[in-house]
Amino acid sequence: KAGVTQTPRYLIKTRGQQVTLSCSPISGHRSVSWYQQTPGQGLQFLFEYFSETQRNKGNFPGRFSGRQFSNSRSEMNVSTLELGDSALYLCASSPGDRGPDTQYFGPGTRLTVL
Amino acid sequence: QQQVKQSPQSLIVQKGGISIINCAYENTAFDYFPWYQQFPGKGPALLIAIRPDVSEKKEGRFTISFNKSAKQFSLHIMDSQPGDSATYFCAASKAGGSEKLVFGKGTKLTVNP
Q1: Of B31, B45, B105, which is closest to A100 when you measure between CB atoms?
Q2: What backbone torsions phi and psi does residue B98 show, to the nearest 5 degrees?
């Protein structure tokens, strides 16, 4: 099976812009979670989608949003970018219907905000 | 509030030695404890995971020890190799229909040849 793919891999934006990141889960996986990774804060949970519904949400401002499509692909959007949003954004997929389970991570999208 | 505390922040071990990384958690609702390994430029990859009904799980050179009463768990890497040099994260999640993982801050392991 193909692994989790994320596009784009690298992105440079300026403050105030918005950005959309994409994640394609492993075939058959219905849960997609998004994490932000920074040197200072480590890996922090943004939100999880399961069967097109947001199932859980972390402590991030409303500028961070996401959605999931019927084929389980997911996108996350960050509006009004701030310098502090520079990070590696990771998505992870899992079957989602068996309780806490192995999450498979993609390679991430490295976002730089100038 | 940091729900999963990981130590040490960095660790240097000689080839063939034992690497030990420790984690402590606060939320007794956690019932799934995975360890992830991350190489530079890559996403985290699951190494080994344990549930609280067992006190130890071993897979090859990697062992998780779990102490439910102390709310602590640790990763032991036996016969550490230079190829094990990476950042290791412990994590925890709870039952209830969500896959949310709470991560420790990570341990950068360097294995010297």
Answers
A1: B31
A2: -125, 150
A96 has a pLDDT exceeding 90: no
Taking the C-alpha atoms of residue A66 and residue A79, their distance in angstroms, rounded to an integer, is 11
Q: How many residues does chain B have?
A: 113
Q: What does A40-91 look like in DSSP terms, one character per residue?
A: TTEEEEEEEEETTEEEEE-S--TTEEEEE-TTS-EEEEE-S--GGG-EEEEE
In A, which residues are within 8 Å of B100 by CB distance?
33, 45, 48, 56, 58
Pick the closest to residue A32 from A79, A63, A71, A59 (CA basis): A71
B83 three-state secondary structure: helix
B91 neighbors B82 (Cβ within 8 angstroms): no
Strand partners, B59: B62
pLDDT of residue A2: 81
> How large is the greatest C-alpha to C-alpha distance in chain A, in angstroms?
41
Determine whether the interchain pair B103/A42 forms a contact, defined as Cβ–Cβ distance below 8 Å: yes
B63-79 pLDDT per residue, tens: 999 999 999 999 999 99
- DSSP code for A14: -
Query: In Å, how far is A55's CA from the nearest CA of chain B?
Result: 6
Q: Name the residue with tokens 């950005």.
A: A19
CA distances from A59 to A36, A69, B24 (A): 11, 23, 22
Q: What is the mean pLDDT of residues A88-104?
A: 88
* Nearest Cβ partner for B101 among A45, A50, A55: A45
